[in-house]
Amino acid sequence: MRRSRRRHHGSPVPTEAKISPLSRDKCPGDPQDVPKQAQQRIRYVRASDGVQLAWAEAGNGPVLVKSANWLTHLEDEWESPGWGHWIQFFCRHFRVVRFDERGCGMSDWEAGDLSPERRIDDLETVIAAAGLKEPFVMLGISGGGSVCLEFAARHPERVSHLLLYGAYARGVARRGDPESARAHRAIVDLARFGWGQENPAFRQVFTSRFFPEGTDEQIGWFNELCRKTTSPRMAAALLESRAMVDAVSCLEKVRTPTLVLHARDDQVVPLAEGRAIASGIPGAQFVELDSKNHILLANEPAWERFQTAVLEFTGREAEPAGEDPAFASLTAREREVLALLTRGLGNADIAGRLSLSEKTVRNHISNLFDKLGVWTRAQAIVFARDKGFQREQEAGSKERE
């Protein structure tokens, strides 16, 4: 495919479309047992004020439109340890349309207008570019929720189901909580002056709240995502604009069937905000998830609960129960390593549990990646969870090498 020679924040950007494989198409051990993974196509559309918006589509099934949330990057998050399992899940059940909001990711970073009205206009621009005619499922995560509320209130005929996770209708400056507002202003100042530094300490003050139970790999990935996804000035501007959001008046106008999900101990958006949305929308369903993470991790029970609730609400079928035949090719030791991977352990911890060297652990991980047809730890965890991997042999035996 031809690529433009112009560069976008240091990287060449396709002018038409880019196809990104989510993982290998087949499992080398048994190619008939592992379905082909989704591929995404990335395109550009110009907003009414000239800002170029990057959007992508992947998967098959009913259309699901995901509103842009804080700091996305269409390419980087595709196989990331933070968002990879989310994207894979939705792409297995829906044709997913998503985009990077103005100011970050693969969209133009220089974007002066960050108003709520402009964000709604950008969403409508992407929907038009995707050629969507029939009603679709709409997904709003965190700050993307308020835009979904506005859209669903204005266009009830266009949205078949509304999914909101970790969302809020009121920005932190609108909640009547002076202490939280002061803390947010401090984070904005940190973003403005420390965001682009090589030392991640400044960013980690912000990012650690998203993954309080995350691994070093997940937190490190999110720190790096923040640095390369937007500029210090724009990061501060985006945070300031989100603080002023007020979509409360839209709640009673939403007539679309709505499911609100929220982590009980979310440190980014308080549980009370999710409850406020659910109580304000007529007939909305509410699911409280047992988690501290604003971004649910692949290896926590709350993620399984989230998937089940979404599929039941949208009328989609869950994957059949039972272990996938692909796991039959794993040795006993590889099964032990995979079991510990699904619990979020790193190589050093796995080596300690199994009395192996880290080099041996790396070799086992490489082998099981080949057999399962995955590229990353995140993909291996998601594959194990979604394909019924049975951890009947609780890893920890020190007898086999």
Protein architecture, described:
Helices cover 38% and strands 14% of the residues. It has 401 residues and is α/β, with parallel strands linked by helices. It has 2 domains: 16-314, Rossmann fold; 325-386, Orthogonal Bundle (Arc Repressor Mutant, subunit A), CATH 1.10.10. β6 (63-66), α1 (84-93) and β7 form a beta-alpha-beta unit. α10 crosses α12. The chain starts with 6 loop residues before the first strand and ends in a 15-residue tail after the last helix.
Brief summary of the model shown:
This protein is an alpha/beta fold and 401 residues long. The chain has helices at 84-93, 116-129, 144-154, 178-194, 201-207, 216-229, 232-243, 271-280, 301-314, 332-342, 347-354, 358-372, 377-386, and strands at residues 7-8, 11-12, 18-21, 39-46, 52-58, 63-66, 95-99, 136-141, 159-165, 258-263, 285-289. It folds into two domains: 16-314, Rossmann fold (3-Layer(aba) Sandwich), CATH 3.40.50.1820; 325-386, Arc Repressor Mutant, subunit A, CATH 1.10.10.
CATH top-level class of the largest domain? Alpha Beta
> What's the domain count?
2
Pattern of helices and strands: EEEEEEHEHEHEHHHHEHEHHHHH
Question: How many angstroms separate the termini?
Answer: 46 Å
Q: What value does the Rg take, in angstroms?
A: 21 Å
- Regarding quaternary structure, what we see is single chain
Uncertain regions: pLDDT < 50 for 5+ in a row? Answer: 1-17, 22-36, 392-401
Number of strands: 11
Approximate shape: globular
* CATH fold topology of the largest domain: Rossmann fold
CATH architecture of the largest domain: 3-Layer(aba) Sandwich
Number of helices: 13
Lateral strand order in the biggest sheet:
3-4-5-7-6-8-9-10-11
Average pLDDT, all residues: 85
The class by helix and strand makeup works out as: alpha/beta
- How would a crystallographer describe the biggest sheet? 9 strands, mixed
